[in-house]
Predict the 3D structure of the following.
Amino acid sequence: MKSPRVLLFAAAWLLFPSVKSPACSCLVTQPAPSPVVLAQAADAVFSARVVGVTPLGPLYVREGNACLQAYPQSLVTLRVIAAWKGVHRSEVILVNEASNCAYPFKLGREYFIYAHAWPSGVGTNLCSYTRPLSESVSSVSALGAPELSF
């Protein structure tokens, strides 16, 4: 005979199946801000091709007297195609922090990126509205001509 705890657990599992939580808490069903508003809030806005992804371990950052530990998932090396704001070089390295919100960059693909200055470096995530370049035609046209093209 099975113990009452095992039976209770099995009954609870059948009656209350697990519910998946959203991948990132910022991904809610509301309209995205306009590309102009997103660009004003970002520290850098540019399009680029991923040329490298380097996985990292823990990173320690000093903020005042405190030493904070952040866990970047990877450094993403990007070859800039065009820049609308905050980019003045042909190559950018972004911090892609490990969390539910880390952006799933793929080597060789092109993206339209809204980046922000973080204590661990310049980075982006799902909440910043970074998207594949092929899905960003409206953002590119709304922002007009870039400051720089490479």
Q: What stands out?
A: Residues 4-15 form the longest helix (12 residues).
